[in-house]
Amino acid sequence: MKIKWPIIALFFCVILFAHTFESCQPSKSMQSFGQKRLPEVVDFNFHVKPILSDRCFKCHGMDDQTREAGLRLDTKEGAFMALGNAKDHYAIIPNDAVNSTLVERIYTADPTSVMPPPESNLTLTDFEKALLKKWIVQGAQWKKHWSFIPIQKPTVPKVEDEDWVHNEIDHFILRKLENNGIKPSPLASKEMLIRRLTFDLTGLPPSLEEVDNYLNDDSIDAYEKVVDRLLASQAYAERMTTEWLDLARYADTHGYQDDLERTMWPWRDWVIHAYAKNMPFDEFVRWQLAGDMLPDPSKEQIIATAFNRNHKITQEGGVIPEEYRTEYVADRAQTFGTAFLGLTMECARCHDHKYDPISQENYYQLFSFFNNVPEHGLIEKYGGIPNPSMILTKEEMATTLSFINNLDTVPEVQLLVMDEMQEPRQTYVLNRGAYDQPTVAVKPKTPESISSFPKELPRNRLGLADWLLSKENPLMARVTVNRFWQLIFGQGIVGTPDDFGNQGSLPTHPELLDWLATYFMENEWNVKQTIKYIVQSSTYQQSAKIRPELLEIDPDNELLARAPRTRLSAEMIRDHALATSGLLVKKVGGPSVKPYQPEGLWAEKTGGGGGSTAKYIEDDGDKLYRRSLYTFWKRTVPPPSMMTFDAASRDFCTVKRQNTSTPLQALVLMNDPQILEACRVMTYQAIEKNENLDDRIAYMFRKVTSRRPNAEELDILVNYYKEELQQFESQPENAEQYLAVGAYKQKEVLSIPEMAAYTIVANAIFNLDEAITKS
Amino acid sequence: MSKILENRSLNMNRRAFLSKTSVGIGVAALGTLLGVNLFRSNESGIITEAGARGSLGLPHFAPKAKRVIYLFQSGGPSQLELFDYKPQLNKMRGQELPESVRNGQRLTGMTSGQDAFPLVGSNFGWNQVGSNGTHVSELLPYIGKIADDICIVRSMYTEAINHDPAITFFQTGSQQPGRPSMGSWLSYGLGSTNENLPTFCVLLSRGTGRPNGQPLYSRLWGNGFLHSLHQGVQFRAGKDPVLYLKNPDGMDSLGRRRMLDKLAALNHKQLEEFGDPEITTRIAQYEMAYRMQTSVPEVMDITNEPEYIYRMYGPDAMQPGTYAANCLLARKLIEQDVRFVQLYHMGWDQHDNLPSAIARQAKDVDQASAALVLDLKQRGLLDETLVIWGGEFGRTNYSQGVLTDANYGRDHHPRCFTIWMAGGGIKPGIAYGETDEFGYNIVKDPVHVHDFQATALHLLGVDHEKLTYKHQGRRYRLTDVHGRIMHDLLA
Predict the structure, then answer these.
(1) Do B96 and B207 fall within a single domain?
(2) Of B34, B57, B80, which marks where a domain is finished?
(3) Tens digit of pLDDT for each residue in A387-409?
(4) What is the pLDDT of residues A678-720, one digit of tens each?
(5) CA A498 to CA A656: how far, in whole Å?
């Protein structure tokens, strides 16, 4: 392959220096770096600390084991401290760049003294050096890390174009757009809007009736009615649960080695139930963290605690149980950190955190909250259910626990749940994180740097949950509304939902984040209401069309001058095919199911063990057509078509998936029997409900994309139909084979070649970029 | 805001680049094939010439090897039966492992409860092979014959003592799941040199030594937090060699072409309407998929080899899905410039009935492993291809279970084991490292798993400390914070 490098390099240069930012407004007298200019006022949190954290903290940070020259730049005291044996110099002297050794060391050409040192493989750009210098010149004002500052309700900024605004969200968005001289995009078409909304709130496409009803509804609250209808549906709860399963690292197997089956789906059904009834989010989290420790807990409250038992558990014969038990506790602590604090707590397992104010001791203090489970590191009885667990009887599932959809009516299930030992285990700091190297004894405690742990709270999981969910906690509400935002817009206000620390992205709209966090808490952690609030904004309802100038100014759409165009998730794509064909079986909950999967995938990797997971035995009937969140998840060999579309492996807590485009995705959409069968079945309705070729194709197109094809598009597809019909008529055996896919009974509504030609057109439509894109 | 600037510039360049160029699909496809690296900037977020030259400025220096074939022997092959000659163990057969030798080594749960740890030497004979008279087991006569072409490392050690963590450690540098596999790292770092095949291909086979032994996990060839273009793609024996590759029955390649043309026309209309460069990428992905539909079955077809090749690789080579057939396939993939071919051969976990099981298992792999090296050599490909042969740990010098004259077993042993490498800048014809007379501890030139990884990357022109990916606030590497380049192993 030949590449013309100089041309490519030229393009990069052109692109790179092509935009400005609100807080990086050009200043006439200022030195410029390409077109990148220094901000008028250099802000510690937004300009300086990201550089210090990324390039300096590794040796001048929290960890005193690796700290060089006694200098730490992660605290105000450290940064302004006198240095050297004689205490005669300072890294930073406010307003005095000339005498600040930091400035000297980053600008020197001497490789033996330049910072960062060459062996670190890190460098500073001229722009970054200038930022640091200017900050010192301007007085070196120090601020607490943004996400640790208590949440305060911000004032709503004024905007010029009041007419565009629907709610406060729009003030925050528009203000920034106006500062950058950008206009928001016009309202999306009604078809696009209902499609986007239906996928965002339910994970499914709208039906044609739903589209038509909305198109025909001219009332002023037509949109709101759709929002309310969707939020009231079971599909909404399933959609929210799907995201929660990634976060909770839910799976149907234990995850290591032979990867035996476990029964966790009753917990999954509880999550659906909780979302459906709009349980206040603080209660939802409190039950999952410590439902077993609530006064006189109900079985339902204990079921919720299975959240903390979703981690992998080993049954591999030779393991040392304590080594693995330690992993399970670490997994719970990590999940807690990622899901609720948005912090990479696990970085402090082996040493003090390099970037955030979390010491190794802090980590084990948090670890100790999760270290009192009466559990064993190894599943001792092969195929047995590891303790602690709870039996749910058939009768309970039919009555008091009827949110568990015991579809197979099994006599009883044994669910892994949390329990607390009477006498807590003594937790120790583990040297290098190793289970067999305990050092200092620690007690349960949360990091002081986040917010203090009130004296009146018990030092156990229940107290931890209360600490987390108190309004003083600066992280929980921010982290949660950021994930809601990500769920709707594809990208969070903080682009790293798993890292609100020093190494994470900064919020694009910090005041909006705090506004939403406050809104959420003031409204009793009401999830449906908050989501409704977001989707009712004008920001959400914009068109997704990309004006050429936006590609220049804001290619990643961080300013939100348009709606995002994001690919549907793995689950949505398959559910889309099932829903548009009418194959979707809308049962809620129950044991996980095994739809189509290429033959032999489990068997070729098994070592002979594994019991029910040694060989994939495909289900039949309704179970082939359930929503994808019910697909059986074997961790060591997860469903391949879902993984191709970036599903999370469920090995650990995941709050953001990749969103990629690969050739293997094309192969799934063209050749997966699940998709092809749906295309075949989709044609039956199209043919039966419409008289002629054009209408039938337009009908299918509309089912998949929610809009009518234009004349040109229809023309291409009609010609394609005719072409393929001719082919199939000349080789009718091909038509028969093409239609012979999937278990759903074939109908002969037309001749076989005609049916095949319609099916192939349906598959082409389903392979359009638009078919798998929200826009 | 500089943080935002930095993050955005990474993504922006690719999109903006695509939207600006008039070269269109061809260039977009190029980006696909090279992975995302072509479009990635350097550390500071500034595109430099080096950044554009190839992902993060890679390779860091002139590579010795361009490609890798990793013949992973899953289960933990016994070094004491295959490569590490310990006559002392035969002399002391049945005597207790001295506590001074064990010296605090933790044991797996399978033997920690054993009352006795009777030493046991190999039941098999040894050949002295190559110009140095190196000892290689009589179980591996073919590998013995290529002794002058390979570098035997007898002083490998690891930290894990059980399969799942040990194999995950070898492949990803971490005992716990979640990090990218070695092949993914190289795909990310070096990109692809083939526009019709995946960069990182995976082949599985099942041994006869212990058919019901250790399982494999698809995460072993997973991309972890890297872009999914870098995941290993499994090639399977049978009519659908890559999952979902085959057109449905009733549709041929011409029919597929017709559909793709209509799709491209319709997608272009969307592009005009929405202006989203991601649509261009999608169109290119469909073209790549189409090319794979031809190129994968072509490369998988091993029926057209000359007779002497089948004789070299052995009779199994004609049987798709066997280790021998996979070795032959590996050579074909390398000939197509695939960057990383990863084989896994299951069945090396001989806890009991070791003598009979390991004899079968060794026979599975001996001839074809040697043939692969010789075949690459005769095609002039060995110099630029790194071949690696080995498992996740070694086995104990004492018997697991009852020791009889004819029978014994061996438990997992992390403190020493043997792998071998060949080609691609590896010093041929040497045996490196030494263990004590008990075959229990390393006494000379230890090589840690991270050292092995660092060395392999080095041979490909990659500085293991510089090939990093920032994820959740931390720069990850294959070698974590460890790894030494073993210069003694380099040619």
Answers:
(1) yes
(2) B57
(3) 999 999 999 999 999 999 988 88
(4) 999 999 999 999 999 999 999 999 999 999 999 999 999 999 9
(5) 8
pTM to 2 decimal places: 0.89
pLDDT tens digits for A577-592? 999 999 999 999 999 9
CA B203 to chain centre: 10
Among B5, B269, B275, the residue with its CB nearest the CB of A713 is B269
> What are the beta bridge partners of residue B490?
B426
Residues in contact with B190: Cβ distance below 8 Å, sequence separation at least 6, in sequence order: B37, B54, B55, B58, B59, B339, B460, B461, B462
B-interface mutation test, from A17, A605, A651, most B Cβ less than 10 A away: A605
pLDDT (tens digit per residue) in B213-245: 799 999 999 999 999 889 999 999 888 899 999
Banded model confidence at residue B211, pLDDT cuts 50, 70, 90: confident
Q: How confident is the model at residue A34 (pLDDT cuts 50, 70, 90)?
A: low
Q: Where are the domains of chain A?
A: 41-143, 190-231, 249-469, 671-774
B280 within domain boundaries: no
Q: Which residues of B touch A727 (CB under 8 A)?
A: 255
Interval B93-105: pLDDT, tens:
999 999 999 998 9
The verdict on B295 touching A (C-beta cutoff 8 Å) is no
pLDDT digit string (tens) for A409-461?
A: 889 999 999 999 999 999 999 999 999 999 999 999 999 999 989 999 999 99
> Are B138 and B171 in a shared domain?
yes
A-B interface: how many C-beta pairs under 8 angstroms? 328
Beta carbons of A18 and B244 less than 8 Å apart? no
d(CA A767, CA A678): 13
Looking at the structure, tell me whether residues B17 and B126 fall in a common domain.
no
For the domain that residue B107 is a member of, what is the CATH number? Answer: 3.40.720.10
For A229-272, what is each residue's pLDDT tens digit? 999 999 999 999 999 999 999 999 999 999 999 999 999 999 99
* One domain, residues B397 and B452: yes
With CA atoms as reference, the chain A residue closest to B179 would be A651
Smallest Cβ–Cβ distance between A503 and the set B15, B259, B474 belongs to B474
Percentages of chain B per state (helix, strand, coil), in multiples of 5: 40, 15, 45
Q: Å from B244 to nearest chain A CA?
A: 5
Tally the domains of chain B. Answer: 2
Residues B49 and B76 in one domain: no
Closest CB from B212, B228, B252 relative to A607: B212
Residue B39 sits in the same domain as residue B71: no
Compare all CA atoms of chain A with the CA of B470 and give the residue at the minimum distance. Answer: A503
Let me know if residue B277 belongs to a domain. no
Q: Assign B5 a pLDDT band (cuts: 50, 70, 90).
A: very low
- Are A545 and B6 an interchain contact pair (Cβ–Cβ within 8 Å)? no
Max CA distance (Å), chain B? 81
What does chain B come to in residues? Answer: 491
Residues from chain A contacting residue B245 (CB–CB below 8 Å): 667, 671
Q: Which residues in chain B are closer than 8 Å to A652, comparing Cβ atoms?
A: 177-178
* Judgement on whether residues B52 and B104 belong to the same structural domain of the protein: no
Residues B38 and B147 in one domain: no
Distance CA B140, CA B136 (A): 7
- The span from the CA of A330 to the CA of A348, in Å, is 11
Report in angstroms the alpha-carbon separations of A611 from A603, A608, A623: 11, 8, 21
Residue B395 lies in a domain: yes
Q: Is residue B438 part of a domain?
A: yes
**Sequence-ordered list of residues with C-beta below 8 angstroms from that of A682, at least 6 positions apart, any chain:** A580, A581, A582, A700, A703, A762
Hey, which residues does A392 pair with through a beta bridge?
A: A413
Which among A644, A712, A738 has the least Cβ separation from residue B251?
A: A738
Q: Show the domain range for B15.
A: 1-57
Q: CB distance from B244 to chain A under 8 Å?
A: yes
